[in-house]
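Hi support team,

I submitted a single chain yesterday and got back a structure, but I'm not sure I'm reading the token output correctly. Could someone confirm the output below corresponds to the sequence I sent? I've pasted both exactly as they appear in my results page.

Thanks,
R.
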Amino acid sequence: MQSKVKICIIGPSYPFRGGISHHTTLLFRVLKKKYTVRFFAFKRQYPKWLFPGKTDKDISNIALKESETENMLDSLNPWTWLNVAWKIRHENPNLVIFPWWSSFWIPQFWTIATIIKIFSNIKILFLCHNVIEHESNGFSKMCTKWVLKKANFFIVHSEEEKGNLLRMFPYAKVKQSFHPTYGIFNYRNFDSQEERRRLGLKSNVILFFGFIRKYKGLKYLIKAMPQILKNIHVTLLIVGEFWDDKEEYLKLIRKLKIENWVKIIDKYVPNEEIGRYFNAADLIVQPYISATGSGVIQLAYGFNKPVIATKVGCLSEVVQEGKTGYLVESASIEPLAKAIVKFFREDKTKDFSKYIKNENKKFSWDRIVEAIEALTGINNL
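Hi R., thanks for writing in. Yes, this is the structure output for that exact sequence:
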């Protein structure tokens, strides 16, 4: 029997791509099993001149979408912001959930949340993928505070982010909940050897997956490759759209003379192809300089793949040293190289993968629903 509690969610979904769109859609999917939920999604997201990638539209043949999604919010049309706000006021839900990840959404979310607060007693929860976005400036931090001030509750993905939020709002009602696992993209069991042949990969394979941005520290992994190759044969597979100057990375690869051991797939990967790259890899590496939550680790765990990551943000909370992978200091080269060599020399693939499979229930979508319930008390209404 479904609860009488009503929830509204505002955020991205299909036809838009990316981790936040996937996360918000899956949250809607799991919440509506138990509650009455309306999902007010975007009909226009970023203007072309602002978006660093080729397109913000999802090109997947197997799209992640829900038929009840209402694509109403236009990022550049304030009338749609007001329309969504008044629809929520009319619906009068017990809770409104906003995902938070980028200062681009300051005017839209501030407007909607302000109208809700002025004209109703509806509670607001901000699910913060980043409390403060990566590479932000002082002005965007100040404006972010204006928006987040509207919330009654907060969910964050790491203890570090919880600390960041409490420095901003010392008395905030906040709960930490791990980023759930994306097992949903494990559509089929791609044969690892077949995928390696198709991609032209040699021997052991390490995968760097996702948009290439400076805070993700890819240059440190590239710089570690010569040390790794002195000990073992390994191919670095880089899969993701470059949001930085690609030529800088290519120059570094040429300078280090590792061109034969690096394979670059410069594109956004549609849902049905994600498994090709994760199944082709032995190990996922995240050499991030800074991090909050990580959808890539949860993608890796969805494919039972071990991870080597840096000790930043939630990464050190999600990767269990010597069980699901290894942790190294950020902005490091030698420790990163040693950890990768250690993984292959000690042949940890089977042991780590088995442990990940057993631990994945800790990162289920039910856990984030339980966190929302415990924080807001909606399950007791």
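A quick pointer for reading it: The mean pLDDT is 92. Let us know if anything else looks off.

Best,
Support desk
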